[in-house]
Each structure stands twice: as C-alpha cells, then as structure tokens.
Amino acid sequence: MPTSILVEKKKLAKPPLDIHYLGDRVLRQPAKRIASVDEEIRRIIVAMLQTMYSADGIGLAAPQVGINKQLIVIDCELDKPEAPPVILINPTIKKYGKALAKDQEGCLSIPGVYLDVERPETLELAYRDESGRPRTLKADGLLARAIQHEMDHLNGVLFVDRVENELALTEELKKKGFSFQHVQHIAQGA
C-alpha cells in the first residue's frame, strides 16, 4: 500500500536521529504498542526514514534510534526514488511460509557485520499504516527478510542472536570492535 509519507532518498550530513549499537541496553527492550497514530508518530516516521537513508539502510526499527515503540520503516528499493517506503505500525506476523532460506544480513546497529541467517521465505502480516488504518501484507524475498529482521528489533532481538556459525560470528564482531558477550543466542525456529 503506497504511503503518503515521502522522504527524499538521500544522505543528510546530520541525520535527525542517532542509531544505537550492539551492547546498548535500549536494543534489548521489547517495544510498546502505539495507542494512536497521530502527527507526532508521523514526525518520527519522517525522522526514521531520513536517518535510515543517511545510513544507507533498507530497514530501521524505532528501538534502534532509542524510541520504544512498535514502528518500522523499510525501503528495499533505494535506487528507485519514486518507490515508496513500507511503514509498519504495531506489526504482527499472521503466518509464515514453510520454505526457509539462508541469506546474508547486516544491521545499522552492528555496522560492517554481515552473516548468514535462516528465515522463512514468505509471510503474511497485519499492521497499521501511517494514518492508523488496519492493513495486511503478503511479502516474500528481501522484503519478507527485512520485515522479520526489523520485527526482531521490536522484541529486543538482533540478527546476530540468530547466527548459527559461532566462529564466523565471533570473528566478524571482533573485526568490527563489537563484543560477543552482547549476543543472546536464540534457538532456530524461535
């Protein structure tokens, strides 16, 4: 569903929000549902989009910028200025597809670290849009992966918690100056 919130897809010298990094406790807190979608929420959405584009990201969850709300912005088409972002408020996954796929993920909260994560290839989602209207969405491929990755943030989970190759994980984190002690492993399928 096209959004009415459009932000130019460009880097800003000073993005409006600061991204928090692995090790920051704010990333481990479950996000709170948004009671009403108002102008303040729409201002946060614009600031999140500007921050995401400035960091060359395709997804950003509110907890990553220190906002404890169930709010996600995603744009898998950074090279298409006319393609609108996906804005998800209070998202809930209704159904996962049976097929799993392993692919590389990265995260704005763990810059420079890219590792394989296995996730369902497809999903069905219920959410509210930037006007507060209930919506549903079927997603596959990169969008489905991005939605799952960002929804993990709403539950205090980071993609590194799902990485199975512990040796590669430890080496990559160390190379980029992050500590393995901040990883909270999750059993596959959780």
From TrEMBL:
<dbReference type="GO" id="GO:0006412">
    <property type="term" value="P:translation"/>
</dbReference>
<keyword id="KW-0648">Protein biosynthesis</keyword>
<keyword id="KW-0408">Iron</keyword>
<dbReference type="Pfam" id="PF01327">
    <property type="entry name" value="Pep_deformylase"/>
</dbReference>
<keyword id="KW-0479">Metal-binding</keyword>
<keyword id="KW-0378">Hydrolase</keyword>
<comment type="similarity">
    <text>Belongs to the polypeptide deformylase family.</text>
</comment>
<protein>
    <recommendedName>
        <fullName>Peptide deformylase</fullName>
        <ecNumber>3.5.1.88</ecNumber>
    </recommendedName>
</protein>
<comment type="function">
    <text>Removes the formyl group from the N-terminal Met of newly synthesized proteins. Requires at least a dipeptide for an efficient rate of reaction. N-terminal L-methionine is a prerequisite for activity but the enzyme has broad specificity at other positions.</text>
</comment>
<dbReference type="InterPro" id="IPR023635">
    <property type="entry name" value="Peptide_deformylase"/>
</dbReference>
<dbReference type="InterPro" id="IPR036821">
    <property type="entry name" value="Peptide_deformylase_sf"/>
</dbReference>
<dbReference type="GO" id="GO:0046872">
    <property type="term" value="F:metal ion binding"/>
</dbReference>
<dbReference type="GO" id="GO:0042586">
    <property type="term" value="F:peptide deformylase activity"/>
</dbReference>
<feature type="binding site">
    <location>
        <position position="149"/>
    </location>
    <ligand>
        <name>Fe cation</name>
    </ligand>
</feature>
<feature type="active site">
    <location>
        <position position="150"/>
    </location>
</feature>
<feature type="binding site">
    <location>
        <position position="153"/>
    </location>
    <ligand>
        <name>Fe cation</name>
    </ligand>
</feature>
<feature type="binding site">
    <location>
        <position position="107"/>
    </location>
    <ligand>
        <name>Fe cation</name>
    </ligand>
</feature>
